[in-house]
Fold this protein.
Amino acid sequence: MRYIEPHGHMVSRVTDDYIDMVTAGCACVCEPAFWAGYDRSSVNGFHDYFCQLTDYEPKRAAKFGLPHFCWLCINPKESEDVQLAEEVVALIPKFLDRPNVLGIGEIGLNKNSRNEMKVLEMHVDLAARHNQMILVHTPHLEDKLKGTRLIVDVIKKDKRIQPERVIIDHVEEHTIKLVLDAGFWAGMTLYPESKCSPARAIDMLENYGGERLWLNSACDWGVSVPLNVPYTALEMKRRGWSAEDVDHVVYQNPLKFLSQCRKFKLPKG
Ligand SMILES: [Zn+2]
């Protein structure tokens, strides 16, 4: 089996995870910028984190033969402080030319607050000005539908952004149609407990046809299953999917979306 892990917060994981992923057939991992497990106290904390995502972590992944890409932003969880967010957004362009940077992400909303909205708009403008792709985090649980609507409206309003270069992550049954109908890609995150399970994700794939969709594992500071994409691929096969159809979802789809960034290249063979 081959697959792409499009959303793994590897700075929070151990080397055993890299070994397991490569053993399971992972062809590359993409790491959106997120919360560090604590709130950073200044823009310097983000500078160091962006160095980690663009320098140290790709080297650590390379020790296991795994190509590593990343996305940069100040995450919604820390974007209540608009002044700090302005400083971080001003810092990001310095890092955009680094070889493993794919775009701006994971931006979005956490609690749907006014300040989070302001920072979301700043990031969308940043992506438009620098012609970057966008990866979006949607809020969890009861805030998800409202948050997804707000996000879709903000991005659609900016005519400089091409929807096919935007992926909206953590969709569920009640938000997937909204995202796909607006022309965006949608990501499904496979959680070990609660929220979207492998079985629910496969139901959605069967209902929506498996185009402009990808799967990613919950792989961060919380309870995680970094191999949930290949585990879900096994479940698809058990449900009668052909090897080709599984490959389409877990490998070809993310490859197609990510290849819109000219820096995204996988080693041959
Ligand atoms: Zn994430």
About this structure: Residues 7, 9, 32, 34, 106, 137, 220 surround zinc ion (CB under 6 Å). The beta strands are 3-5, 26-32, 68-72, 101-108, 133-137, 166-168, 185-190, 213-217.
